[in-house]
């Protein structure tokens, strides 16, 4: 039995029109959301936890996207940029994460329209309704949202007419254990985040070390390829690769992939295994990871039998999940398995869809029981790894139209995506999927990044929020 608690209506719908739409996160999709909302004539405020735009993108800035510039710039954002004299990058070239920030996100954030509405160094700790927790129903749709903010000056509460959460998943990696639980001990710097800059600023962390990479996706493969390049110059660098299943279906070479470089990724990493440069530990279900002096002991089962390996560093490339803690007082309608909106979940099931075969979707699929609350971008996909950047742009266009009252335009969702055979991303949020900015294919390819080819393949971009 479901119990509905009510209180007497106390809201005035007209007061909502005086409030802005709150956008959480100033990554590519968050800034696109702000651009579309402003184009619809709606006031907006963007709350960014970092001290600059694209904080998470900068974390993987050394990687290069698989997709050329023509697929990573939002239309409404372009319309804001063009009057400023902004020079659009060559549409066929492939940007790195740093390029994406310097040549697109920073100029966009500095436009006269967006600059005044972005607040930096502001972390949204909670979202609720003013005077209402999630149990109260009467007048809920006409009651302002309440956002609790953490700033350098302390705690601040603000109100909004609607909320668009584009905060991504990059800061919420899946745990290393097969059970989805955190290791029982604090591992400190013995654990590296997905896509470390192995050949750059993180080189000393891996050089001459025994390294275990955990994960069966493109982030893991990309890191292994870079580590193999490092091992050629740094004697004693030993590479192990733990995967939970018997094989890595997502990393097979796929001629149907619209991004040929990504299809080549599987061939490259499996070549390292076959040559003995990488020791693959298949069917390894990790139960715990514990510090062991200066090293790490990883325990679990291989094919059902107890198994232990001791290494110096572990790279967690197991994917990401949405952080839902701040939405505890919001009425969410999420799929029980992938934690995406219920109507969206079957459309993005990674068992059925690649990035390119996900159907276009907008407010109808993104709606929650909470009126005028939306999760967009990578976070909207929950734990599913098939997100494309262009998909996020169409999501926020649809949301902006809905909030502006143009319900027909909101549901006229149009997006043509090429079929991309193995497009799976293992990094979320304002996340990356890439490889080092290099022209040497041996140094790696990843789910959304590659060495710049002479003629980039037609594809949509993925993995950034």
Could you characterize what this model shows?
Helices cover about 20% and strands about 20% of the residues. The chain has a 5-stranded parallel sheet, covered by helices on one side. Strand 13 (about 285-290) and strand 14 form a beta hairpin. The protein has 11 helices and 18 strands. It has helices at about 30-40, 55-60, 75-80, 95-110, 205, 220-235, 260-275, 345-350, 365, 390-405, 405-410, and strands at about 20-25, 45-50, 65, 120, 125-130, 145-150, 155-160, 160-165, 190, 210-215, 240, 280, 285-290, 295-300, 305-310, 315, 375, 435. It has about 475 residues and is α/β, with parallel strands linked by helices. The model is unreliable at about 5-10 and about 420-465 (pLDDT under 50).
- State the major sheet: 5 strands, parallel
- Portion of residues in beta strands equals 15-25%
Write the H/E string, N to C: EHEHEHHEEEEEEHEHEHEEEEEHHEHHE
How many beta-strand runs? Answer: 18
How would you write the strand order of the largest sheet? 4-2-1-8-17
**Poorly predicted spans:** 4-11, 421-465
What Rg, in angstroms, do the CA atoms define? Answer: 22 Å
Can you give keywords for this protein?
465 residues, alpha/beta, 18 strands, 19% strand, globular, disordered C terminus
Helices, strands, pairings?
Layout: E1 21-24, H1 28-39, E2 44-48, H2 55-59, E3 63-64, H3 75-81, H4 97-109, E4 118-120, E5 123-129, E6 145-151, E7 154-160, E8 162-165, E9 191-192, H5 203-206, E10 210-214, H6 218-233, E11 238-242, H7 260-274, E12 279-281, E13 284-292, E14 295-302, E15 305-311, E16 313-316, H8 345-348, H9 363-366, E17 373-375, H10 389-403, H11 407-411, E18 435-436
Parallel strand pairs: 1-2, 1-8, 2-4, 8-17, 9-16, 10-11, 10-16, 11-12
Antiparallel strand pairs: 3-18, 5-6, 6-7, 13-14, 14-15
Helix pairs in contact: 1-3, 1-10, 6-7
